[in-house]
Amino acid sequence: MNTLTDIEFRPLVIPASIDAPDAADFLEMVRVRNLVYRQISGHDDHAIAADELLPHFAPSEYEERNMWIVVDGDAVIGRAAIDFPLENDSKVGFWLIELQQDSWSRGIGTAAYELIERTARDRGRSVLQSWAEHPAALGPTLAPPTGFGTIPEDHAARFFLRHGYSLEQVERNSAFDLTAPFDTVERLLAEARAASPEYRVVQWFAPTPAEYVDGYAWMKSRMVTDAPAAGLEFDEETWDAARIAEHDAKYVGRTMQVTAAQHIATGELCAFNELVIGKDRTEASHQEDTLVLKEHRGHKLGTLVKCAGLLSWREVAPLSPRVITYNAEENRPMLDINEAIGFAPIAYEGAWKKVLS
Ligand SMILES: CC(C)(COP(=O)(O)OP(=O)(O)OC[C@H]1O[C@@H](n2cnc3c(N)ncnc32)[C@H](O)[C@@H]1OP(=O)(O)O)[C@@H](O)C(=O)NCCC(=O)NCCS
């Protein structure tokens, strides 16, 4: 085994395509990413193909991405990254360090963290935040100030604590079984339709059709302001047609279905739900953003867009075994809907924060 001084943090080269001559490090980064997630979660539902991840690394007007691969001799054993939103006066940075399990407890994580914190300070960022899955384990647990949820005080939790982080929020990862009968979804959809006669369901696949761009942009801008953030800090985001186009370009090669509720009288889009799957239609599907605008809550629009989305998803991805989603553990209104539909918890994540002095 090499010593810590032999470990290299090599800035990731972003290739033009995954077949480009300089794509080797990117391919290794994706391999180690998928391996680490399998080691933590015990399944491959978080895996993504290299060509489907690459568009997320395209230069962006809205975010600066910095990533390094962790190289031990000839072997890529992990990755480290910190992203800086480019909103005005942003103080935040979002980071990750992911090492394959046989490289833990050698001080590599700590060395990577020094690089992360130094990079954040150099960019004038003072609020650092990171998420990690904490698999169920016996022993002591930690609870966030929200009072909702706990995580085991495991290796990753001790790592965060030792580097001055506090646990701010617990997120629940749930799964919906797409192979089971849809009776409940159909019943809930019928109830939601009956409770929302002033609204209709509209659906599209990314890229967003021109007629929905403005409404979708407004709803996307409300995600950071309207979702429960506990003690975490997020910048207000401005979304317009250009930002929607950049967002949609990240899903090139994958399928994103957006199901929205439209107020019939005004044409306003008031709620939406996103479902995503890659080229491999036998993999797990991912539910991404879901939101009901504040002024339109109380009409069962959350249930409406989720159930309508799941029902048509059965035709889009009939071989996908399940849908994976994440919710804040204190987000009772959203969890009530998901639990009624049949989503069941499978894992918990911690959201961690440190304010640099
Ligand atoms: C969390 C994670 C990044 C930590 O990395 P790591 O390399 O194991 O961390 P370190 O080795 O620097 O420190 C971990 C432990 O090893 C000990 N250690 C540090 N240097 C050491 C060395 N040279 N030899 C032996 N042990 C050492 C530390 O004291 C620490 O002990 P503790 O768990 O009792 O606090 C890593 O486990 C990981 O990738 N986990 C999966 C992804 C994840 O959860 N990431 C969290 C951030 S997104």
TrEMBL record:
InterPro entries hit by this protein: Acyl_CoA_acyltransferase, GNAT_dom
Keyword NADP: no
Protein name (record): GNAT family N-acetyltransferase
Domain of life of the source: Bacteria
Top enzyme category: transferase
Pfam families: Acetyltransf_1
Record key words, sorted: Acyltransferase, Transferase
EC number in record: 2.3.1.-
GO MF terms, alphabetically ordered: acyltransferase activity
Keyword Ligase: no
SUPFAM superfamilies according to UniProt: Acyl-CoA N-acyltransferases (Nat)
CDD domains: NAT_SF
